[in-house]
Amino acid sequence: MIDSWTPTWRPSLALRRFTADDADLLIELEGYATEGSRALLGKAFTELGVRTVWAATMSVNHGSRNITEKLGMMLADTIPAPSDMEMIEGSEHGGVRYEITKEQWKQQ
User: Fold this and answer.
1) At what angle do helices 62-70 and 33-46 cross, to 10 degrees?
2) Which of 1, 14, 46, 70 has a CA positioned 20 to 30 A from the CA of residue 36?
């Protein structure tokens, strides 16, 4: 991970930058998740120079999946559940990864 940026007003919403072109969007809040995530996407693409932002969640986490889809993120891949999440109900269904590029974000 290169760096990370977390708004001071909501520490449960974060953007983690892994490479110069790649960042992970962490969404762990209720109420303002969509609005806060939109702000982080804007920061990633306009101020930080990121080309792709991705978010991963459990397949059964429909709330997080709905947020990523509202943001214009597209389903990119299915992923296995990490071993530290195997005790969580629904982990047997694995996870999903959503992505959005700067070009896709600009077209919204």
Assistant:
1) 50
2) 1
C-beta separation of 38 from 89 below 8 A: no
Residue-wise pLDDT for 40-68, tens only, equals 899 999 998 999 999 988 899 898 899 99
- Domains held by the chain: number: 1
CA-nearest of 101, 93, 106, 29 to 67 is 29
Closest CA to 52 of 91, 105, 7: 105
Query: Residue 62: CB partners within 8 Å, gap ≥ 6?
Result: none
Which residues, including other chains, have CB under 8 Å from residue 76's CB and lie 6 or more apart? 54, 97, 98, 99
CATH number for 24 = 3.40.630.30
Q: What is d(CA 71, CA 26) in angstroms, rounded to the nearest whole number?
A: 13
pTM of the model: 0.76
